[in-house]
User: Which sequence fits this backbone?
């Protein structure tokens, strides 16, 4: 069993990796600096700006917020959306998606909101599996789609079914939970907690690429360990927790703060929980 959290000796820091500003994205209503202020108030210490088909210049933001680690990015938006995030991101939105993915080595590539509206296909499983090279991650939760939108009354923020479907097909992808901040009420609901050795963008990218992070809408991780075939997880407040394996099969459920499971021959096992403080999504432990 491969534990992506092994060697997590650094600090857990909070951030958001999917967000827009009104200067660069027509769909967003919050300007860059006002948005960063909102994220900072919510506790974010790293941020990626991912405007639609443009890399927003962050030099003024870096100067004003020296304590925030910024990553560049954009949301490839010619058809189904996908995030490209890194320390330095070239204008790959000018390319077709397959060309852009081929040029994206070293970047994080993240499938956005696989089905943001109930009853309507967006990213289907075959579409995700056909991507070559494959993406690094998918979104498991996008809180922009947790409330009715002007454009559609049936939003859906949760994508565990898509994640389990592609994991079951053998595609080893991490998952992110993101604010996808566009409008004033979109900030601070959802976050990535990454375990970083220092506050540099390089350390952050290393943690994100290696799976040393988890998604949260409030619930926090206190401990995770694997000894032999047993996975042990502790969260910071009471929750309903479950271990999930191939086919989305529930391998174990419990209530409380401590959870453990002895794996057998599953290709992957992942842990998720939800309680009054919110949700948490850990990365998979792969066989
Ligand atoms: Zn948008
Ligand atoms: Zn977006």
Assistant:
């Amino acid at each position: 069993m491969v534990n992506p959290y092994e060697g997590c000796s650094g600090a857990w820091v909070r951030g958001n990796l999917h967000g827009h500003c009104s200067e660069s994205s027509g769909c967003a209503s919050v300007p860059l600096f006002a948005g960063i202020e909102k994220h900072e108030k919510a506790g974010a210490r790293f941020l990626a700006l991912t405007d639609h088909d443009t890399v927003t210049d962050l030099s003024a933001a870096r100067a004003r917020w020296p304590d925030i680690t910024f990553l560049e990015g954009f949301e490839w938006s010619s058809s189904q959306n996908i995030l490209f995030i890194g320390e330095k991101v070239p204008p790959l939105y000018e390319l077709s998606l397959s060309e852009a993915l081929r040029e994206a080595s070293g970047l994080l590539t993240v499938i956005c909101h696989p089905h943001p509206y109930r009853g309507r296909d967006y990213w289907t499983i075959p579409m995700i599996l056909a991507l070559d090279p494959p993406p690094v991650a998918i979104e498991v939760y996008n809180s922009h789609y947790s409330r009715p939108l002007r454009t559609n009354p049936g939003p859906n923020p949760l994508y565990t079914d898509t994640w389990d479907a592609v994991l079951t097909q053998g595609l080893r992808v991490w998952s992110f939970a993101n604010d996808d901040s566009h409008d004033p009420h979109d900030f601070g609901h959802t976050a990535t907690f990454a375990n970083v050795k220092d506050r540099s963008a390089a350390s952050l990218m290393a943690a994100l690429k290696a799976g040393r992070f988890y998604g949260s809408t409030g619930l926090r991780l206190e401990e995770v360990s694997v000894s032999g075939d047993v996975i042990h997880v502790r969260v910071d407040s009471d929750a309903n927790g479950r271990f999930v394996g191939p086919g989305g099969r529930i391998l174990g459920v419990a209530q409380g703060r401590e959870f453990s499971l002895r794996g057998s021959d599953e290709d992957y096992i992942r842990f998720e929980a939800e309680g009054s403080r919110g949700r948490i999504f850990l990365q998979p432990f792969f066989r």
